[in-house]
């Protein structure tokens, strides 16, 4: 199935198809120099499969983990392209999760002011979220995603087969973002989470999540308004993620908890049941001072108030301006009371 991203000159297709990695050359123009970027945690066979189909491929394997989204590694990618005589007509292919996609996409955007970029996301999170929307970035001076570009790929190839090697906890990490999209925008997707087997329905979960993100991004490519709904659960989620002692939690695991206070009491029980089903539910010993600091020290906090997305009924949302302290109070009440 192909999902078309309609972004004027920057439009592109997202192909979701089992087995598409194996015939990747049917979908991408690889008849040129290709920098295939992957990381040390992604099964090496995936990048090799792509490289074998290219006329002239260079595989670059960066160390797995957030640390590779650095100026240093970014520089290495550019250097590799320069050393191998990459021209404006050549391209970069990312084969990995959000780390590889963000890094490789940014390198493609910068080399010779922009060469073609293809993304082959291999984690659930990257397949449903980070690979579309055109945001690329690295971290700098300790600040996440602070240097980057809006740069759309020429095509995205999603092969759900690649998820079979992904650890269960990484699957849950991606599911958190899919649950997020169902809550604000797709009631039927939420029904799948509630009533059906997740693994059996993973392709549909991917496609429905992509469609939610597609609609949001098409309406708000540069994140000025609607795109805020993609931050549902993220204010408190970021707070939890950044409060030191809990930093071993994954992003999705924190967002999952961050969504609970932002749902109305009417639906909270159902949301919690879905989180339980996806191994995204836990009871923590929260440090509210730290969470408050971390939650509102980011760019989304606006003075004393913050713009948050709330969900009253599954599949719909409201964007509200709330006092930061009221958000924390709400989080305290709803998260401390959990059993
Ligand atoms: N650009 C965006 O819009 C956007 C949106 C959300 C997140 N992000 C970024 O994405 C990054 C997180 O992405 P992620 O969750 O994909 O993490 P990740 O890229 O670090 O991947 C998670 C781990 O899984 C391994 N892995 C990847 N694919 C695998 C596979 N098929 N089988 C086995 N192991 C595999 C990786 O080596 C890594 O160790 C963050 O840096 C975040 O800032 C970007
Ligand atoms: Zn997120």
Keywords:
binds zinc ion, 2 domains, 12 strands, alpha/beta, 3-stranded antiparallel β-sheet, 7-stranded mixed β-sheet, 13 helices, Rossmann fold, Dehydroquinate synthase-like, alpha domain, 339 residues, binds nicotinamide-adenine-dinucleotide
Summary of the model, kept short:
This protein is an alpha/beta fold. It is built from 13 helices and twelve strands.
Description:
- The structure is a single chain.
- The protein has 339 residues and is an alpha/beta fold.
- It has 2 domains: 2-165, Rossmann fold (3-Layer(aba) Sandwich); 168-336, Dehydroquinate synthase-like, alpha domain, CATH 1.20.1090.
- Helices cover 43% and strands 20% of the residues.
- It is built from 13 helices and 12 strands.
- The chain has helices at 24-27, 44-52, 71-83, 98-110, 124-130, 168-185, 187-195, 202-219, 234-242, 251-262, 265-277, 288-296, 324-336; strands at 2-5, 12-16, 33-39, 56-62, 91-96, 116-121, 135-140, 143-150, 155-158, 301-302, 305-310, 318-323.
- Strands 1-2-9-6-5-3-4 form a 7-stranded mixed sheet, with helices on both faces.
- A hairpin with a 7-residue loop joins strand 11 and strand 12.
- Helix 5 (124-130) packs parallel to helix 6 (168-185), helix 6 packs across helix 8 (202-219) and helix 10 crosses helix 13.
- The radius of gyration is 20 Å and the shape is globular.
- The site of zinc ion has 4 residues, from helix 10.
């Amino acid at each position: 199935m192909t999902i078309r991203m309609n972004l004027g000159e920057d439009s592109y297709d997202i192909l979701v198809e089992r087995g598409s990695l194996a015939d990747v050359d049917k979908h991408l123009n690889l008849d040129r120099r290709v920098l295939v970027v992957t990381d040390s945690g992604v099964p090496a066979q995936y990048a090799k499969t792509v490289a074998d189909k290219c006329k002239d491929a260079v595989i670059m394997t960066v160390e797995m983990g957030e640390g590779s989204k650095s100026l240093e590694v970014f520089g290495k990618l550019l250097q590799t392209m320069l050393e191998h005589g990459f021209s404006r007509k050549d391209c970069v292919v990312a084969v990995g999760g959000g780390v590889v996609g963000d890094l490789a996409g940014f390198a493609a955007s910068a080399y010779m002011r922009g060469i073609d970029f293809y993304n082959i996301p291999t984690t659930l999170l990257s397949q449903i979220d980070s690979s579309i929307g055109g945001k690329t970035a690295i971290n700098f001076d300790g600040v996440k995603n602070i240097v980057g570009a809006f740069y759309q790929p020429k095509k995205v190839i999603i092969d759900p087969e690649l998820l079979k090697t992904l650890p269960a906890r990484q699957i849950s990490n991606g599911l958190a973002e899919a649950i997020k999209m169902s809550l604000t925008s797709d009631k039927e997707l939420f029904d799948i989470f509630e009533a059906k087997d997740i693994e059996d329905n993973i392709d549909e979960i991917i496609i429905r999540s992509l469609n939610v993100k597609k609609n949001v991004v098409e309406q708000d490519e540069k994140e000025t308004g609607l795109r805020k709904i993609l931050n549902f659960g993220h204010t408190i989620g970021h707070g939890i993620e950044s409060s030191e002692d809990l930093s071993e939690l994954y992003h999705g695991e924190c967002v999952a908890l961050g969504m609970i206070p932002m749902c109305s009491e009417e639906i909270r029980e159902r949301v919690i049941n879905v989180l339980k089903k996806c191994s995204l539910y836990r009871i923590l010993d929260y440090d509210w001072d730290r969470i408050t600091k971390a939650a509102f020290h980011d760019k989304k906090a606006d003075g004393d108030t913050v713009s948050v997305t709330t969900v009253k009924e599954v599949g719909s949302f409201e964007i509200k301006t709330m006092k930061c302290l009221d958000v924390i109070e709400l989080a305290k009440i709803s998260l401390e009371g959990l059993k």
